[in-house]
DNA sequence: AAGTCTTTCAACCGCTAGATG
DNA sequence: CCATCTAGCGGTTGAAAGACT
């Protein structure tokens, strides 16, 4: 079999991270930057394996991570991207820069999958022609967006909007602790102003990313101009999508995408963004149908 | 109030691809 | 070319919290 897990070494700590460990890790990364994870446990004295350090950083401590409830728009994006890309959480996460792949994956598994299933069973009972393969979400997504499913659209419109306290309250308990500790650390560090500036820079970069994303979205819409929105998928995108679906169903998606041709994602991306811009409302409503 | 069940999500595991010597 | 190492990804697990009886 393969190599033993890196965490099998004696003395390597597992389980939840303590705020103290978080501070050690964050301060080290602030100093040296992320990367070279191998050396992190040795240099910091953390009794964690390098992998654990990296995961803790990328999924939890990295600046600019947004936590807490997903917005309806984010939900819509995830549902949509999942239908397009499958369980490529990292790829999906790249479209939601403030969310981690782990977060998205968890949210999908705990919330969205259930909602989709629930909705689909509801929809199936309404429609005389159920999808051929009811185990996948793809059919749901495309069917949902088709003209034939006005019922679905009406259904979703009847649902309540997200509760007003949909902000990240439940995250506060842990994050606030870490934030407090980090504040303390920044105050006590040799050059706090520099570090604060770096933090601010990160924040700005994130908002810039957002702006970039938005402007990209807008310009694409202006260029392309899909007036009918989701229900009208341009031919060139449709062929790409059907290619991918075919590949995926035959289990060769990865190989084909990775080797022979560059991923036709620019098309998908363009189509997706056009769609989102044109159909923001529908996307925002999408998750509400399941509540 | 106490016990049980369900849900959530942070963290882990195993695998793979790419880099390096 | 091969072996090894590292980073990254997706699936899974299990502890904690919340909901329910």
From TrEMBL:
Which interval of the chain is the signal sequence? Answer: none
Residue ranges occupied by any HTH myb-type domain in the UniProt entry: 9-65, 66-116
Q: Which CDD domains match?
A: SANT
Q: Which GO terms describe its biological process?
A: green leaf volatile biosynthetic process; response to abscisic acid; response to auxin; response to stress; stomatal movement
Taken from the record, one Pfam family name reads Myb_DNA-binding
Q: Which GO terms describe its cellular component?
A: nucleus
List, in alphabetical order, the Gene Ontology terms for molecular function in this entry. transcription cis-regulatory region binding
- Localisation: Nucleus
Q: Which UniProt keywords apply?
A: DNA-binding, Nucleus, Repeat, S-nitrosylation, Transcription, Transcription regulation
Q: What is this protein called?
A: Transcription factor MYB60
């Amino acid at each position: 079999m393969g190599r033993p897990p890196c965490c099998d070494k004696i003395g390597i700590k597992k389980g939840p991270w303590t705020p103290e460990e978080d501070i050690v890790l964050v301060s080290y990364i602030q100093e040296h930057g992320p990367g070279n994870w191998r050396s992190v446990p040795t240099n910091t004295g953390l009794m964690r394996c390098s992998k654990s350090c990296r995961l803790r950083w990328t999924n939890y401590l990295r600046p600019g991570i947004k936590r807490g409830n997903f917005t309806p728009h984010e939900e819509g994006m995830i549902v949509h991207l999942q239908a397009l890309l499958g369980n490529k959480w990292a790829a999906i996460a790249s479209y939601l820069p403030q969310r981690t792949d782990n977060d998205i994956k968890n949210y999908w598994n705990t919330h969205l999958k259930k909602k989709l299933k629930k909705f689909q069973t509801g929809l199936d009972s309404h429609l005389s022609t159920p999808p051929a393969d009811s185990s996948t979400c793809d059919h749901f997504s495309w069917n949902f967006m088709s003209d034939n499913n006005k019922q679905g659209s009406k259904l979703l419109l009847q649902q309540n909007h997200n509760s007003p306290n949909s902000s990240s309250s439940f995250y506060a308990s842990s994050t606030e602790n870490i934030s407090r500790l980090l504040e303390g650390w920044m105050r006590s560090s040799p050059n706090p102003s520099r570090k604060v500036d770096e933090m601010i820079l990160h924040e700005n970069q994130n908002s810039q990313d957002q702006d970039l994303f938005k402007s990209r979205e807008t310009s694409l819409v202006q260029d392309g101009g899909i007036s009918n929105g989701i229900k009208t998928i341009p031919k060139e995108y449709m062929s790409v999508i059907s290619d991918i679906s075919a590949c995926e169903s035959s289990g060769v998606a990865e190989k084909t995408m990775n080797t022979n041709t560059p991923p036709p994602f620019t098309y998908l991306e363009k189509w997706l963004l056009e769609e989102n811009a044109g159909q923001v409302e529908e996307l925002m409503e999408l998750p509400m149908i399941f509540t």
